[in-house]
Amino acid sequence: SFQLAADQAMKSFVAVFIFGLANCSPSSVNDNEIERIWPGAPPLRYKDVEGLRKNLNSVIKGADIPALVRLGFHGCAGGCDGCINYEDPNNAGLQQTTSPLETLYRTVYQGRMSRADYWAWSALWAIEKTVQNNNKKCKGKGCRIPKPEFTYKWGRKDCPTSPKTDNGGRLPGAKFSHDKTMDYFAVEFGLTARETVALLGAHTIGRAKVGNSGYNGSWIKGEEEMFNNKYYKHLVDQTFTWKHRPVTPELENQHWQFDSAAGMMLTSDFSLYKEVYPTEEGPNSCRVSETLGCKKTSTASLVELYAEDNSLWMEDFREVFMKVLENGYDDEELAVIEELN
Question: Would you give the DSSP letter of residue 41?
């Protein structure tokens, strides 16, 4: 099975990884700074980042890659503390899809780094990997996307019961209107409207499953593991026919989504560009026609901007994604690992 293969592969990494740690070059973070940020902690170096990238690349495959982005975000709602409430329906499926990641942590990294840092670094790697996937398959003009060049930091602390908790941060709703989406990210993560629009472009990767969220399908069909700005391109494309339909009509709490030949969008996605108003039953009060007849929102110009410019979007996404993965910490509480020349 995949799980058995993953376990065997990770065991073979241990000797190589430990040898690598013994030969790490020091980063620009001095020992006094390390002791101040996390008393008694072993210093993490850039070689640790390289080692984690190598291990994740060998163990995490296919649809499990976008799941790490979801884990990184959900794990930082309410503060990045290495804990998830797996009983929360909003986190459905996370424990199963990230099982290989947890096995790798227990085999190699436990005691070496906090689970909160491990999840954050893994989410950064997942974006890096899906950018690589996109650029390898890119065939047309303007489809390449710049490397994200993330700044890796450490010093996040785990909750006492990591990785599980009975608590958990509040998560955004798929039925959120434009105003509710903006309010949520402003309150929970301190994001501006521009940062919120940039962050939600991460929906360009991955897919929704009825068993997890009640929704079904890929945001970008056929490119679930390719990170690019097609999320915005699809929102602004006037040639698309969007159908608003219930995915779970048999349930009292129905799950309505927008479908087109190219993929799907949640109400919270669509509301970045068009003023749609979800009702308690699920349908939206504004009919979406072939010409996208709803009024544009106050953030519509940002959606159009990102649809036109992959590089600009990546620049904005890079900053806001790192900000999300540092939720709950001040700048002086985390140590920066700088790439060695």
Answer: P
